[in-house]
């Protein structure tokens, strides 16, 4: 799915950037890793959601440094605060 129409970036390209050695922590760092920058900004929410989901998927349960550690330990509010991805039309 195309996430950023200005730079023609797909969700797969963004997720691949997360596998690089730099391990970007923010949306702007993802763009830097991909050699571009956000233009209109409509995609930033989706990029952030991809980052959050990737961090949850790669997190080891019980790690104290994880920003989503509460979601792993049954805190229902933290689980609800995780962004949901939606495809743009």
Structural summary, described in words:
With 89 residues, this protein is mostly helical. The chain has one domain. It has helices spanning 11-18, 27-33, 44-58, 69-72, 76-80, and strands at residues 2-4, 9-10. The protein has a two-stranded antiparallel ribbon with strand order 1-2. Strand 1 and strand 2 form a beta hairpin. The longest helix is centred in the middle third of the chain and has 15 residues, at 44-58. The termini are close together.
Name a few traits of the molecule:
89 residues, mainly alpha, 5 helices, 2 strands, 44% helix, globular
Biggest sheet features: 2 strands, antiparallel
Strand order of the largest sheet: 1-2
Helical amount: 40-55%
**Proportion of residues in extended strands:** 5-15%
**Low-confidence segments:** 72-80
- Bulk shape: globular
Strands, total number:
2
Task: Compute the CA-based radius of gyration.
Answer: 14 Å
Mean pLDDT: 75
**What is the succession of H and E elements?**
EEHHHHH
- How many distinct folded domains? 1
């Amino acid at each position: 799915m195309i996430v950023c129409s200005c730079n023609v970036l797909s969700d797969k390209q963004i997720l691949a950037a997360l596998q690089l050695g730099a391990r970007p922590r923010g949306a702007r760092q993802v763009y830097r890793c991909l050699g571009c920058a956000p233009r209109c900004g409509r995609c930033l929410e989706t990029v952030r959601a991809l980052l959050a989901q990737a961090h949850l998927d790669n997190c080891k349960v019980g790690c104290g440094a994880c920003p989503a550690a509460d979601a792993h330990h049954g805190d229902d509010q933290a689980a609800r605060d995780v962004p949901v991805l939606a495809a743009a039309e």
